[in-house]
Every structure is written in structure tokens, then in C-alpha cells.
Amino acid sequence: MKVWGIALLAGAVLAAGCDAASASPVNLLANGSFENGFTGWTVAGTGNPYGTPLIITTNGSTAGPYGDIVPADNVSQSPDAVGTHAAYFVDDAATESLTQSVSVIAGTTYQVGFDYFVTQSGANNLYPFTLSVALGPEIFTMDTTIDPVVAGSWAHFSDSFTAGASGSAIFTFAYNSGPQPAKDVIVDEVYATAVPEPLTLSLFGAGLAGLAFFRRRRAGKTR
How far apart (Å, rounded) are the C-alpha atoms in residues 198 and 174? Predict the structure, then answer.
């Protein structure tokens, strides 16, 4: 095989590696943007006055239960398209959750995240809320008693971990508020994605090594 043919082969391998490494991530969660209400989610909780989260419209013009007009999410990092609906956690003295089952693979790194919007109507309420995400045994918490939150604009939270075992894992999104009156929060674009492995450099290195080998082999034949 001629050297230029090997070079083309190395280029093809590199291109394949680039395609694999740059492939768009897939959200393991069904309906993470709540465009179909709570379809795919198991909803549970207690609180006052609603007891469970609500679905609201986030289009910049429709008022929510307490008069808040919420714009479209402009900070999303989810693979899902940004829509016009979100989950509204509004209760005082509440413990509420959204859960669904996903499959994970041992040794794979996963990123979990969500976007949140603290309402203006609840911004001055005395008591904080805590949001936490769990994927199997891994738990990530945004504690508003420690982390400051800004009312009236979308913000993003994310973290990552490597799965220790393969199988089905429960994804849990939990909201806990303080006593009455507590701050309220809207959540959208919830996701869990596998982080692509860095294939490009390893495949490129393999292609260069192959090219060098055939060059040495050809040089040996011409002596």
C-alpha cells in the first residue's frame, strides 16, 4: 500500500473519531423540559397550598399562579429543545419530588443538570429552599442557605460523576422549602447525559503511528 493511501486511511480514522467525539449528547430523561406536563415523571410531595409541583407557561407573557411572568429559558445546556413550559415548586413547608428510572453503565461519566428561576413574588419570603438531584447513589445539592440566588432570571446548575455499577438507577429531583413563607422556584431543562470519551486524539495518534510504521517498512524495502 502506498504512503498516500495510508495517509488517507489515517485521515478517515481521524474523521470518524471526530464524528464520534462530537456527537450530540442524548438526554437519558424523558420529557426533561416538561413540554408534555409530567409525562414520564412520578410526582410526589406534601405542602401548602398545592402539595405537588405545577406546570406553568414560560413564554414571557403568561402570568403564573402568583402573577409572575416568566421568560423563556435562555441558559439551557440540555440536549432538549427549549420550550414554553416548566415545573413550578411553590409550596411552603414542602417536600416534593419528581423521579424516573434511567439506565447507566459502569465506568461512564454522566453530567446532570437543570435550569432554575427564582420568582419575584417569592423573592422576599423569609425561608429558603433546597434543590437536589440524585442519580442512583450520587447526590448533588444546590443549597440556597449557602448559595445566593438571583430572582427574576434563569440560572444553570450542573455536576458530573462516574457510575460505579451498571443497571437501572432512579433519577430524583427534590425540592424542600422552609416554613411559611418560603421562596419559590421554577425548574426547566432537567437532564442526565453520558459524557463522550475523548476519542479523537487517541485515534489520531493511532493513525500517525500506522503511517510511521508503513513509512519505515517502505524505507527498509528500498535499501
Answer: 32
Q: Which of 176, 170, 165, 9 lies closest to 91, judged by CA? A: 176
> Phi/psi of residue 209, each to 5°?
-65, -40
If you write DSSP's letter for every residue of 23-86 in order, what string do you get?
PPP--SSTTTT-TTTTTT-EEEEEEES-SS-EEEE-SSSSB-TTS-B-PPP-S--SSSPP-SEE
Report the C-alpha gap between 26 and 40 in whole angstroms. 16
| Residue 37 dihedral angles phi and psi, to the nearest 5° | 65, -135
A 10 A CB-CB count for 45 gives 18
- The DSSP code sequence of 110-130 is EEEEEEEEE-TTTTT-SB-EE
Q: Is the pTM of this model over 0.85?
A: no
How is residue 106 written as a grid cell?
A: 459502569
Q: How close are the terminal C-alpha atoms of the chain, in Å?
A: 18
Q: Is 135 exposed, middle or buried (0-12, 13-18, 19+ CB in 10 A)?
A: buried
Which residue is associated with the grid cell 445539592? 141
Give the closest residue to 178 by CA, choosing from 97, 117, 95, 118: 95
- Per-residue pLDDT of 41-95, as tens digits, reads 999 998 877 888 999 999 999 999 899 999 999 999 999 999 999 999 988 889 9
